[in-house]
Design goal:
90 residues, alpha+beta, five-stranded mixed β-sheet, 5 strands
Length: 90
Amino acid sequence: MKQAQHLIVSGRVQGVGFRYFAQATALEYGITGWVRNLNDETVELQIEGDEERLESYKRALYDGNRFVGVERIDVKDATVESFRKFDIRY
């Protein structure tokens, strides 16, 4: 069953390609939604997928890559909007 979550990610997540990493990883895990930078140096995501994929995706965000340093992910349930792809918003 498809679920939706709203995430706020903090740490070293701006200026390090995190949005592109989040998008590429979403494609890998079959996650739809969007990602964008916020003015307070955090990154906001709206993600949709089944529960197992969402959990795997969030673990992958924590693991990051050599540039990214996720310290915290705040998660709230959200309303499913049935996104067709995963976009980077500006």
